[in-house]
Amino acid sequence: MFVDMPEADLRQYRSSQSDPSDFDSFWAETLASTRRFDLAVEVIPVDTGLKTLDVFDVTFSGYEGQRVKAWLRVPHDATGPLATIVQFQGYGGGRARPLDDLLWASAGYAHLLVDTRGQGSAWGGGGTPDPDGSGPAYPGFMTRGIDSRETYYYRRVFTDAVRAVEAARSLDVVDENRVSVLGGSQGGGITLAVAGLVEGLVGVFPRVPFLCDFPRSTVFTDSSPYKEIGNYLAVHREKAVAVHEVLPYFDGVNFSRRATAPAWFTTALMDNTCPPSTVFGAFNEYRGEKEITVWPYNGHEGGGVYDDEATLAILNGMDN
């Protein structure tokens, strides 16, 4: 069943998320601190047995120089420079195996699929630890370090993601002026963060994005992962105000207010995990050219392969 307001109302909806006056300086200082460390990109060929694609094991320096893993996939013997897609994973997943996610390289693009630190054991598989500890947290990742914007888990994740784009742009096979970012669910939220922090992207593809409109999402759905915050605050009742002072620095709504690259969102009207109003909360604030595809009869899977087909058509149109 539909889980939210009618589509006409969704298109008029505005998030109540505040926009901190020091949002930009917080992120500028975070990225400047991390950029003290050399990217130190390592690219190692992987013997996959594929004849039409080449796969490379990539490692680069993310937040505060901590090492992050990714797979780079390109057409066999490609010399570039190629239009490139940097992709971020959904909640709990990692970069998975070298033979996963072959679509974009098969279509002729360079494809960097980035690990999410500390994740990769719910599905797929990951190889990037999260060395930073945090205080008491509800099981999962949503409340790790949530007592402070400096220690919150997604500060590290979003910084890793920005550095992933920088790492991609440093590669000879990549055309630094033709880089797009893509992700679904958590990956969609990371994609929006990158769109708000990185200049010169040619395309932004947030599919059923997570990490949006926290004032609504933390009270509107009983589904995880948003529910992790509610469960945490049910125990730590005294921290509700403080937590909602931290979350605006990591909300897709506020990154959308700063993003100018063309964007193609998706949402689904039966999505309990990322309710459509929370997606529209970010979409309606997005500053750049934008479109949104609404899937009326789908849940958190969104458009699935239909979204792949649409994205590929958009990318091919840019490339011609």
TrEMBL record:
UniProt xrefs under Pfam families: AXE1
Residue span, Acetyl xylan esterase domain: 2-312
Spans traversing the lipid bilayer: none
Protein name: Acetylxylan esterase
Organism: Frondihabitans sucicola
Taxonomic classification: Bacteria, Bacillati, Actinomycetota, Actinomycetes, Micrococcales
